[in-house]
Amino acid sequence: MVEQSLVYIYLFLCSILFISHTRSAPVINETSSVPLLLLISFDGFRWDYPDIYKLPHFDSLQKRGVRVKHIDNSFATVTFPSHYTMVTGLFEETHGIVANSMYDPVLKAVADISTMNDTKWWSQNAYSQPIWVSNQLASDVLQRRSGVIDWPGSSVPINGYRPYEYLDFDITRSLDSAFRQILKWFREPAASRINFGAVYHAEPDVTGHLHGPISPEMNETLKKCDDYLGGLLQMIDDDDYLRQNLNVIITSDHGMHDVEKTHRIFLVDYIDKSLFTAYGGRAFANIFANKASDIDRLYANLSNLTDYEVYKKSQIPVEYHYKSNVRVGDILIVGKVGHDVIIPGDETYAHIVGDHGYDNRAESMHPILYAFGPAFYQNLLAEPFRNVDLYPLMSHVLHLKQRPTNGSLSNVKHILVDFRPEMSSTILVIICLTLVALSAILFTVCAWRHSRQLVYVPPDKVIVEYHRLNNQEGAFDYSSEGEDDIDNEKL
Ligand SMILES: *[C@@H]1O[C@H](CO)[C@@H](O)[C@H](O)[C@H]1NC(C)=O
Ligand SMILES: *[C@@H]1O[C@H](CO)[C@@H](O)[C@H](O)[C@H]1NC(C)=O
Ligand SMILES: *[C@@H]1O[C@H](CO)[C@@H](O)[C@H](O)[C@H]1NC(C)=O
Ligand SMILES: *[C@@H]1O[C@H](CO)[C@@H](O)[C@H](O)[C@H]1NC(C)=O
Ligand SMILES: *[C@@H]1O[C@H](CO)[C@@H](O)[C@H](O)[C@H]1NC(C)=O
Ligand SMILES: *[C@@H]1O[C@H](CO)[C@@H](O)[C@H](O)[C@H]1NC(C)=O
C-alpha cells in the first residue's frame, strides 16, 4: 500500500540520518588525549601523476579518505618557500623565504639551501610560526610534542622554538626508515610521545629534473614512492592506536614541467654583468641592481623578451603575493612555463630536462593532496584549495586556536567531518522529531482511511444476510407479487 511504504521510507531516512551521524565516532580502544596528525610531503609530486601512472596505494587513499583534485600553490613554486608556506599558512612575501637562494639587503647576507640553516632566514618577523611550534605552544601543552624529519627549517630554531624531536635533512635516509622513526615517536610512552609529525621526501623531484615528468624513470621512482606509502599504510593498520587516532595528510610543494635546451636564456647575454647580482633561478630570478639608477636600463634590456615576464618590483602582480619583501629583487624575471633563465655562475641547468618555479596558476605546477583519518570524510574527491589553507586545516585537526595567517578554514571545511552539512545534534534531533511526527500523522491517516474502507459499502452492494429458511418462508407467493404489481400500476 502506498501510504504504508511512505511510512517505511520515512523511518528508513530517519535511521540513515542517525547512523550517518554516529559514524563519525568510531569505537576506539585507546583514545589519544590530543589529536594526532602526520604531514608528509613528496617533493615535486605533480597533481596528475596518479592519473598518468599506476599507483595503487595512492589510489586507495581516496577510498580511505579524501583526494583533493589539486592544490593551488603560491608563487614562487619552489621547494623551500613552498614548504614554509605549507607549515605557516603565510605567503612568501610574509614569511620571507622567497627562493631557494636569496639575498637580504637588511642582513647583507646571501643564503642557499645549504646555508639556510640559520634562524635569521626563518625568523624575519613574528608572523612565522610553523605548525610544529603552534602545536607545542597550545594550552594543553603537556600532551603535545612535535617531531619533524628532513622538512626544510625543521632543525632551525624559529622565533625561538624548535620541534621536540627532529632529524636534520639527510639525503641518504630512506623514506621507509623515516616512516618507521616518525611512527615510533607517535608510540612513545605518554610522557614523551609526539602528537604531530612531519616527514619530507626529496623524490619524485630529483627524477623530474633529471628525466622529466613523463619518463620511464619517473614511472620507476613513483612506483617506489607508492611502495613506501603501502608500507606506511600497513604499519598504521597493524596498530590499533594509530589506525583509530592518526590523521594523515599527504601532499607536495609543486609540480614539474618539461624544459628544452632551446627554451633557456642566460641573463648575461642581455644585461651587463657588472651592473647587477641575481638570485633564485632557474624558472625565475630576483635581480638586484648595484645602483638604483641602473634599474630602468636593466629593465629596458629585458622587457621585450617574449617568453619571459619581467617586472620592476612595484609592478609584480598582486596575485603572486610576492613583492612585499626586501628579499625580492628590484627586477623579477619569470619564465613562461617551460622557459628557464640562467643567472651568472649557475651551472645546475646543464642536466635539467624538467623544472618548476613558474607562475603558480599554471596547471603543471600544482601538487597533490590526500588526507585520511578520523577528522576527514571518506571516499571523497574534493575541490581544490590553496597551500596557505593547509595551516588552518592542520590547526583545526589538531584542535588549536586559529592564528591569523593568509589561509582560511572556510576553504577546507568541505573535507572535514566536523562540518558535514548541518549535522549538528540540535538540527538532527529536530529533523528526526519532524520525521517521527510526520510518520505518526501519515500512519493515523492511513489507519483512518483503511477503517473507512472496511465499513463503507456502495448502495448496490448491500450485504445480504442469510439464515436457515423454514418450510413456509421462501416459498414464492405469486398472489402477493401480483398484488404488488397491481398496486404499482394503481400508482
Ligand atoms: C580492541 O582491543 C581488543 C583487545 O584488547 C581487540 O580484540 C579488539 O579487536 C579491539 N577493537 C578494535 C575496534 O580495534
Ligand atoms: C610504467 O611501467 C609499467 C611496467 O613496469 C608499465 O606497464 C606502464 O605502462 C608504465 N607506465 C607508464 C605511464 O609509462
Ligand atoms: C649550517 O650548516 C653548515 C654545514 O652545512 C655548518 O658548517 C654551519 O655551522 C651550520 N650553521 C648553523 C647556524 O647551524
Ligand atoms: C643593454 O644591451 C646592450 C646591447 O647588448 C648593452 O650594450 C648594454 O650594456 C645593456 N644595458 C644594460 C643596462 O645592461
Ligand atoms: C629590446 O629592447 C632593447 C632596449 O630597449 C632594444 O635595443 C632592442 O632592439 C629590443 N629588441 C627587440 C627585439 O625589440
Ligand atoms: C598575510 O598575513 C599576514 C599576517 O597575518 C598579514 O600581515 C598580511 O597582510 C597578509 N597578506 C595578505 C595579502 O592578506
UniProtKB/TrEMBL annotation:
An MF annotation (GO) of this entry: hydrolase activity
Keyword entries, A-Z: Membrane, Signal, Transmembrane, Transmembrane helix
Entry superkingdom: Eukaryota
Annotated TM spans: 427-448
Any Pfam family hit: Phosphodiest
InterPro entries to which the protein is assigned, alphabetical: Alkaline_phosphatase_core_sf (IPR017850), Phosphodiest/P_Trfase (IPR002591)
Stretch forming the signal peptide: 1-24
PANTHER family tied to this protein: BIS(5'-ADENOSYL)-TRIPHOSPHATASE (PTHR10151:SF120), ECTONUCLEOTIDE PYROPHOSPHATASE/PHOSPHODIESTERASE (PTHR10151)
Protein name as it appears in the record: Uncharacterized protein
Species this chain originates from: Adineta ricciae (Rotifer)
